[in-house]
Please model this.
Amino acid sequence: MFLFQKEHRLLELHRKLAAGTWHPLPCGLHLIYEPKPRAISVAPFENNVVHHALVDVLEPLLGRG
Model:
């Protein structure tokens, strides 16, 4: 859904991050059954966008591992 309104959603996300009002969205829960039954958490796409932006900025400062 994020990609259907990519420009608008990115601008809104930027506004929230700049204002300090962004909060991570709750993860979704998916049940899978192969190779064994288990529940996995899946982060919303918006959370992943913020995560990757942070990694791009912080990784050069902190180094890799």
Strands lie at 28-32, 38-42. The chain has a mean pLDDT of 92. Helices lie at 6-19, 45-62. The first strand starts at residue 28 and ends at 32.
